[in-house]
Amino acid sequence: FAAMDLKLERRNGAAIAALEGEIDLQQAPALRRALLECLQEKTAMIVDLGGVSYIDSSGIACLVEAFQAARKDGSYFALAAVSPGAMRVLELA
C-alpha cells in the first residue's frame, strides 16, 4: 500500500497542488476529486509533481481530465517540478 500526500495552497490567485508519494489506481479517485473541486473555482492551477515517486495511467488520466476541465473553462493549468519517474510515464503517455 502506497500513500499519496496532497497539499493544497493558494498563492497569488492560483491553486497549487503539491503531490508526494505514489499516484496509482487506489490514490487516483482522491486526486481527481481534489483537482476538479479546485477547478470549479475557475482559478489557475499548478500541479507540483516534484515529490511524486511513481504515477500510473490512472494518475495520468486524472491530470489529463483536470487539464481538459481547465481548458474548457479558460483557466490556466500547468505541471511543475515533474520528477524524473513521473516524467518517464508522461513521455510514454
What would your notes on this structure say?
By secondary structure, the protein is of the alpha/beta class. Helix content is 41%, strand content 37%. The longest helix has 17 residues, at 57-73. The two termini are 24 Å apart. The mean pLDDT is 91.
Strand order, biggest sheet? 1-2-3-4
Assembly annotation? single chain
In total, how many beta strands?
4
Order of helices and strands: EEHEHEH
Give the biggest sheet. Answer: 4 strands, mixed
Q: What is the percent of helical residues?
A: 40-55%
Task: Provide key terms for this protein.
93 residues; alpha/beta; four-stranded mixed β-sheet; 3 helices
Give me the secondary-structure topology.
Blueprint (H helix, E strand, L loop, with lengths): L3 E8 L2 E10 L4 H12 L4 E12 L1 H17 L3 E4 L3 H9 L1
Parallel strand pairs: 2-3, 3-4
Antiparallel strand pairs: 1-2
Helix pairs in contact: 1-2
